[in-house]
Amino acid sequence: MKRWRKIILGIFIILVVFMGMILYLSEFHLDLSQDYRRVGGYENIVFKDPRSDQCFRLCVWGLMKTENKNVFKEHRNPDITSYEYQLLAENADAENVWQLVPSPDGRYILYVERIYRGTGITDDEDVYYRVYSTADKTSVTIYSGFKQFLLVDWK
């Protein structure tokens, strides 16, 4: 019986260490959804924390630290008269678009939505990072988080 306890304790410790490594590498940007894999060229999407200037890329457990890019363009407050914005408004029911970045090949539009849920006690704001496909007119949420105000760019 003591042997089983040691085995279970060992497995538990290994899992805790593994989860700690994942949380450290992602700086708590954890999201286990794999929907981002449906987007061609997702490996070229870069997220940037404006407070620390740290860049991130999508991976299996969410976002992983990556090298900082000096050529990071900011795409905040998109032009509501642009073709991409009008396309999102008509086909994707996009509300409160905070950032908008077309893919280099023009097949996708990466956009960030801030959804406010006023509870009366606190200000709750969820942030959704979505990609709209111009070919099949569908949106895929590639990352989401509570108050995760990251900047995005598509290299």
What does this structure look like?
With 155 residues, this protein is of the alpha+beta class. The protein is built from two helices and eight strands, in the order H-E-E-E-H-E-E-E-E-E. It has helices spanning 2-26, 83-91, and strands at residues 45-48, 55-59, 62-66, 97-102, 108-118, 123-133, 138-146, 151-154. Strands 3-2-1-8 form a four-stranded antiparallel sheet, with no helix packed on it. The protein is elongated and about 70 Å long.
Q: What oligomeric assembly is this protein in?
A: single chain
State the low-pLDDT regions, or none.
Answer: none
Portion in helices: 10-25%
Mean pLDDT: 78
Q: What's the Cα radius of gyration?
A: 19 Å
> Strands of the biggest beta sheet: in what spatial order?
3-2-1-8
Q: What's the arrangement of secondary structure elements?
A:
Elements: H1 2-26, E1 45-48, E2 55-59, E3 62-66, H2 83-91, E4 97-102, E5 108-118, E6 123-133, E7 138-146, E8 151-154
